[in-house]
Design a protein that fits this description.
Elements lengths: L2 H19 L3 E4 L4 H12 L5 E5 L6 H13 L5 E3 L3 H11 L8 H20 L4 E3 L16 E4 L4 E4 L7 H10 L52 E3 L7
Helix pairs in contact: 2-6, 4-5
């Protein structure tokens, strides 16, 4: 068995155990390459996992194209959550539509309105949530665990692709003809809102195209930064 096949089986085992141990499991699908791998695995294995995505209102057209392709390809419904329009309007009126370039504080406030607040609504009433985060994506993610209690949201959090490499993610996508964001073909390894995402040059860190004007230590939007308690997790055999 290849190393990738072993990781695929381990990932499916984590997903299956999450479903067994926590009712009402939901998958936060950012539509990045990792999350498309998880989408494919959830659909192929018929797992009882809800799936949602956050539409910030400033996503690239290519991301919307992928949303539509996902809808056509897979039977798993993708629920979309939008930011509170009143909060968006207040932010724009007080600071300007692109004020996130002016300071880390204003950028994080924008992220809170467009991502964090909708995420709280998406997770309300759920017992566990799943993400496509990997340890080697950024310096801020080196301490991730496969499973931990998310104290900020009051539910269990799973990162089934934790130890996958970027190369393994793309090997799976190509081998299984998984749809992906076409911006990846234009050197956008990590894709968020259009104004806060740019292409990178070969050799650059894969997250260097996100909020490129900030220090790497600050490069999180608030969705995955908070208090969490690791839980010893053994995948079912």
């Amino acid at each position: 068995m290849s190393a990738l096949q072993q990781k695929i089986e381990q990932t499916v085992a984590v997903l299956q155990q999450a479903v067994r141990e926590f009712a009402l499991v939901t998958f936060a699908n950012s539509l990045g390459a990792e999350d498309m791998v998880l989408t494919d695995l959830i659909a192929k294995n018929g797992l009882d996992i809800e799936m949602f995505s956050l539409d910030t209102g400033r996503l690239p057209q290519e991301t919307y194209d992928l949303m539509q392709e996902l809808r056509k390809r897979y039977s798993v419904p993708l629920k979309i959550y939008f930011p509170d329009s009143v909060l968006v309007e207040e932010y724009a009126a007080q600071y300007g539509v692109n004020a996130f370039y002016d300071s880390v504080e204003l950028r994080k406030r924008c992220c809170h309105i467009r991502k964090v607040e909708p995420l709280k609504r998406a997770l309300a009433g759920k017992k566990a949530w799943i993400t496509g985060m990997r340890r080697d994506q950024a310096v801020t993610r080196g301490g991730l665990e496969v499973s931990s209690f998310d104290a900020d949201h009051g539910l269990q959090k799973f990162n089934p692709l934790l130890d996958w490499t970027n190369a393994e993610v793309w090997e799976y996508i190509k081998a299984n003809d998984v749809p992906y964001n076409k911006l990846h073909d234009r050197f956008y390894p990590s894709i968020g809102c259009a104004p806060c995402t740019r292409s990178v040059t070969p050799g650059e860190d894969i997250r260097s195209g996100r909020w490129w004007w900030e220090d790497p230590q600050n490069k999180e939007c608030g969705l995955h930064v908070g208090k969490s308690t690791p839980l010893k997790f053994t995948a079912a055999k």
